[in-house]
Design goal:
Elements: E1 2-5, H1 11-24, H2 36-43, E2 50-55, E3 61-69, E4 78-85, H3 94-108, E5 113-120, H4 124-132, E6 136-147, E7 151-161
Length: 162
């Protein structure tokens, strides 16, 4: 698996799984009916942000991540990131590889920590992965996310000092 900078040419491979994940409404607070252009605008980050793809040896896009300063100005020393793995390629270590890549990027860029602002508490695979990479749940916003089948569930704010 190779993780590299995403290009405009990667978007047609990202969009189908991005769209399916967003439309399911279980893990991201984006509108379920987000159209392709709006999806591209929220995912493909301009500098100082960055978007990457994880690709297989044959060039198949397995997953993607974007990263950026969590806040501007006085909060720009803390990074943030978002991740999506194509469900057809799950359970292959793609999320972990992307997470480790983001940690390496944030260290190299001089960030002091990484904050995830909204990890849905029912997304136990993500919560477990982030904890295994050293992230802590700092707090949970009760009923911060409306899950399509489980109703109102919490949003975790997770953090890792670098």
């Amino acid at each position: 698996m190779l993780i590299r900078e995403a290009t405009a040419a990667d978007w047609p491979a990202i969009w189908p799984f991005f769209h399916a994940i967003v439309a399911a409404g279980e893990t991201y607070p984006y509108p379920a009916d987000l159209d392709e252009q709006a999806g591209r605008e929220v995912w493909m980050r301009p500098p100082p942000g960055r978007t990457v793809v994880a690709v297989d040896a044959d060039g198949t896009v397995l997953g993607t991540a974007n990263m950026n300063p969590n806040k501007p100005g006085g909060g720009a020393h803390i990074a943030s990131a978002s991740f999506m793995v194509d469900p057809r390629h799950g359970r292959r270590g793609v999320g972990r590889a992307l997470g480790e890549h983001v940690l390496d990027w944030a260290r190299a860029e001089g960030y002091r920590g990484i904050q995830f602002n909204s990890v849905v508490e029912t997304n136990t695979a993500a919560v477990t992965l982030w904890q295994s990479l050293g992230f802590e749940i700092m707090t949970t916003i009760p009923e911060g996310f409306r899950h399509p089948t489980r109703g109102y569930v919490g949003f975790h704010i997770m953090y890792r000092k670098l």
